[in-house]
Amino acid sequence: METIYFDNNATTKVADEVLDEMRPLFCELYGNPSSMHTFGGQIGRKIRQAREQVAALLGCDPSEIVFTGCGTESDNTAIKGTLAAVPNKRKVITTRVEHPAVLAVCRDLENYGYTVVELGVDKKGRLDMAELQEQLDEDTALVTIMYANNETGVVCPVEDIAELVSSKGAVFHTDGVQAVGKIPLNLSQGNIDLLSLSGHKLHAPKGVGVLYVRKGTRLSPFMLGGHQEGGRRAGTENVPGIVGLGKACELAARNIEQENNKVRSLRDKLEDAILENCPDARLNGDKENRLPNTTNISFEYIEGEAILLMLDRYGICASSGSACTSGSLEPSHVLRAMGVPFTAAHGSIRFSLSRYNTEKEVDYTIEKMPQIVNQLRELSPFVAK
Amino acid sequence: MWEYTDKLKDHFFNPHNVGEVEQADGVGEVGSLACGDALKLTFKLDKDGRIADAKFKTFGCASAIATSSVLTEMIKGKTLDEAAKVTNKDIADYLGGLPEQKMHCSVMGREALEAAIENYRSGGKAKHELEGNVVCTCFGVTDKEIERVIEENDLTTVEQVTNYCKAGGGCGGCQGEIEKIIDKIQGDKVKEVAPSVPRRAGKLTNIQKIKLIQQTINEQIRPALRAHGGNIELIDVEGDKVIVAFRDMCAQCMLAELTMKEVVEAKLREFVSEQLSVEEDKDSITQPHNHIE
Q1: Radius of gyration of chain B (CA)
Q2: Alpha carbons B240 and B277: distance in angstroms, whole number
């Protein structure tokens, strides 16, 4: 059975071109870029090139790129590093729909005497800018708001937010893990101070991330113990990962528009057909303003894990905001923040596509989905016969 | 991904006895859409009083559907007295085991069976009613139900109780009470595993005591409340009296006084001093505070 992979917001396939670029760095060019000898020193050039490739995708200067171990590390560094550098301010503003890599860090700050404000969202997952404006004050050290939501794909107006935040003298960080490679960026022209990204979400390997740090942004290092990354992130570089990420960024920059059009049309086809062929299905999120690859659909009266296992039998990979999939007893915090009723949240399924998906895969899923929904609804006590 | 047995997967993909028995003798309905799983069990008796036919309808995950399916298989041909002896453990064993966090599915099966038998015996009138006092308000679980899963499955931790009947898995406010029920039933068994004398600090200055109280609230109490959208704030310490305020979800919780206070008090006594008592500061609810959702 072939795998149909519609779970690209969880992780992505490493692009063949990326792996080719990485391969020599394991057994042949394995030197340490910090070494004095030529064998190690030549690796430094590889890292420099990767830094330039990442900077090109983000539209910034290579010196503003800090390589990290993952997206979560980038988020932690951005939040804790900013607060350590601005010790006199004690307030942090974030949202209720952040990824745990941001939300859990912010909530922990309360234990250290910080005031943490979690902004709400409306039923489409859109932020209330007026509430942000109201909360922003002189005591605000940091505002951290995601670029695009991992569960619904809803995109926040981060450039507008960044402008507002910087006008009040606070630092603005955005978790761009889902956005980079899908939304064209030009950071040098905007007001975003810090941006996190993760390699494995854009066809680079797991275990490598980036924190973009705008020139002049005060940030205390999170990892100490070495001079790497200009003293901003200690630890011997994950050279293959960094080189792979550089290549993945180059590919993304080259193809972003064309691929987005293809991915978007596949996503739209999948979404339209499912909503049309499955009764009592509803879209979660903001149709107008979201990533081109993501759709999140709730199926009433049936449960997400059961749907996923049925899909799995056909080799189709997706994910769910249902409680049962996580082992917790409560459904997705994102859908709950949007006011999606518990009944619909339990039956939510996220399909997230990539450039490697084909029309054939979409057609196959369109064919199977109504059958699965019907089959489970026949079991459901909430469906009247 | 869950480790499901082949037997479970088979019953999920090819469930037996789906539907509703026509003119059923007994009907049992448990669970709800909001809770994430629900089961409607119907059965019909033959002239000898044995279960001739049983069918189910289930909303829930794969293990909820599979446990419902095997339940109908297990009870067919049994008298009601025989069927009433089926425990959640029997259901789980029949499937070759369930992941620990999914054990509540087997408990739901047993509950539906009981509800259906009760319904039959009352002449079709009785609807399943909660027995005992509600301990977990998030999932509507009573002390009787908690006692039962502890006894039948030999449970010794709060986490296990949550896995088996969901109690304590929402806001976490009732976890102290669950612990007391476990203690009551398992008594010495629990103490064997965990030493009952907490490692407390020695003599404390006032400042040390207040710091330790704050730290205990931060590390031991707040995370459980936050998990369900609630919060707690330390308002003041007067001698051994600790004054706190509950925020957000907890502030609106009807059971705040009964459960939250007890949980907080138990934790503070465990980690700081046996002498402490907790009071809720009602006035501060209307006052401005620094935790805004």
Answers
A1: 23
A2: 6
Model confidence over A364-382: pLDDT tens digits?
999 999 999 999 999 999 8
The per-residue pLDDT for B191 is 55
**Which one of A95, A298, A308, A309 would you mutate to disrupt binding with B, by most B Cβ within 10 Å of its Cβ?**
A309
* Residue A384 touches chain B, beta carbons under 8 Å: no
Asked if the Cβ–Cβ distance from B292 to A330 is below 8 Å, we say no
Sort out which chain B residues have CB atoms less than 8 A from A303's CB and list them: 36-37, 59-61, 64
Query: CB-based contact (8 Å) between B166 and chain A?
Result: yes
Query: Which residues in chain B have their CB less than 8 angstroms from residue A311's CB?
Result: none
| Single residue among B193, B214, B235 that ends a domain in this structure | B193
- Joined together, the tokens standing for residue B14 give 């090819």
B43 and B105 assigned to the same domain:
yes
The correct CATH number of A16-252 out of 3.40.640.10, 1.10.10.10, 3.30.870.10, 3.40.50.1000 is 3.40.640.10
Range of A120-134, B164-178, B182-196 with top mean pLDDT: A120-134
**What pLDDT score was predicted for residue B5?**
95
A379 and B59: CB-CB below 8 Å? yes
User: What pLDDT is recorded for position B219?
Assistant: 82
pLDDT higher than threshold 70 for residue A325: no
Contact flag A115-B291 (C-beta cutoff 8 Å): yes
Q: Are B61 and A324 in contact (CB < 8 Å)?
A: yes
pLDDT score at B176: 87
CB contact under 8 A, B162 and A115: no
Which of these three, B95, B121, B147, is where a domain ends?
Answer: B121
Q: Identify the helix (H) or strand (E) that includes residue A297.
A: strand A294-299
The one-letter code for the residue type at A382 is: F
Q: Could you give the ipTM of this predicted complex?
A: 0.87
Query: Catalytic residues of B, which ones?
Result: 35, 105
Q: Please identify, in words, the CATH class of the domain defined by A4-11+256-379.
A: alpha beta
**Range with the lowest mean pLDDT among A31-45, B55-69, B129-143?**
B129-143
Query: Is residue A317 among the annotated active site residues?
Result: no
Find the largest Cα–Cα distance for chain B. Answer: 77
For residues B163 and B184, give the distance between their C-alpha atoms in angstroms, rounded to a whole number. Answer: 19
Tokens of B109: 């099966």
Structure-token pair, residue A195:
């941006």
Provide the domain count of chain B: 3
Residue from B108, B95, B86 nearest B41 by CA: B108
Query: Which one of A306, A342, A343 has the shortest CB-CB distance to B60?
Result: A306
Which of the residue ranges A172-176, B88-92, B179-183, B254-258 would you say has the lowest mean pLDDT? Answer: B254-258
